[in-house]
Design brief:
This protein has four helices and no strands. It is an all-alpha fold and 79 residues long.
Length: 79
């Protein structure tokens, strides 16, 4: 079983920008899905539940969370 992972605490600006990405959806589907993953993780939702929410593999969710923790909002763009 994979070790639980959680997004780091968001700054006020990060939280606002992530919400805008999710609500408006104008930034593209990749950025919107990664923003959803990050927001859900920062609020305490476990990776398997997030994976079901966004129809992704739990390992992909964990990768997005690790990347966000390392690079911040830059991790939301296409690789």
């Amino acid at each position: 079983m994979a070790k639980p992972v959680r997004a780091r605490r968001l700054t006020e600006d990060e939280g606002r920008r992530l919400l805008n990405y999710v609500r408006r959806g104008k930034q593209g589907t990749i950025r919107m899905r990664r923003a959803m993953i990050t927001l859900a993780s920062s609020s305490g939702t476990p990776a398997p539940s997030i994976a079901r929410l966004v129809a992704a593999d739990p390992d992909t969710v964990r990768d997005v969370i690790h990347d966000f923790n390392a690079r911040g909002l830059a991790a939301l763009g296409p690789s």
